[in-house]
Amino acid sequence: MKLSEIKNILPTLDNVEFQLENGTFVPEHFHVTEVGTITKSFIDCGGTIRNEKVVNFQLWNANDYEHRLKPGKLLNIIRLSEEKLGIEDHEIEVEYQNVTIGKYDLEFNGKTFVLKNKTTACLAQEACGIPTEKKKLNFSDLSIKSNTSCTPESGCC
User: Fold this and answer.
1) Where in the chain are the domains?
2) What pTM does this model have?
3) 24-33, 60-69, 109-118: which has the minimum mean pLDDT?
């Protein structure tokens, strides 16, 4: 989800709720402790230099049980970060501490924001010699064409 998308969604909500992909909700007394831009410059294993930018939200589970972040307040934090930091419309990455600090992609299911698990990948598979994954087929799904198939009595085998 891009920053512009969350800005369009927030005014339509009564509450801001975040949920992990496994269904567990972030406690409703969370704080958004940071909004910023993270820039990553790196070289992949194939030697290609790459640059990535994401908008970062950091969620913190505070001991302030009376605190509830309302959509308007989060929208104001986002607007202030755009104004003061020059944040652009990039994909949002959410940091949230479960067992350790995790980084998540963000989606919206119509009611809550869902923290989607991120995965790693090789960005230069062709340079590493990693073969492309072959399509797996079930024999039962293959159709037999009568004019091209070989039968035991046909002498073609």
Assistant:
1) 3-117
2) 0.77
3) 60-69
